[in-house]
Task: structure prediction
Amino acid sequence: MNDMLPDQKRTLQKSFLEAPERVKELLLGRVFDRVFSDIGSKYRLDTKQRKLAENDATLVLLAFLPRQGMSQRLAEELGVSKDVAEGIFKDLNDKLFALVVDILSEVETELFTFDPADMALDDETPNTNTSPVERMRTMEGDLKRIHGYGSFGELYGTGDDEVHHSSQEELVKKPSLTDLPRYNPNTPNE
Result:
């Protein structure tokens, strides 16, 4: 487990911390060590093989690896025959995994023993959500605010006067709001 990435170690630690207390005690206690020392002596595993088997069992207990196919994984990782790997898996099932299943079934019954009255909703709970609901922005609304004839629609409202057509000359022609300045007061404005 030393060659794990930091994210994997954090995930493994998080899973360990979220495990029930009795499972943690089992992983850190003497039962776990005793089971693997018995398996190591029974199947003549060296220290490295025993550690690999412990790591695989720990990953199964913390639900990172499935229990199905563990004997095949043990055969590949430990470099032992398929019969030896199946024997190790059987011993792990009988001595370790059965304990965990018992612990988890006890924890599950503790978790799911509740009074239905505890789950009833309280009718007197006040609604504290007083934030007003605002309309969502849409592309149509943005276009009306930014472009074209709708840019002042919110300020002045939409009128009935629609522009059906316009010519370039009408757009270029400047309005004459006042008389043009004259340099000679005797000449009329054009």
Residues 20-114 form one domain. The longest helix spans residues 82-111.
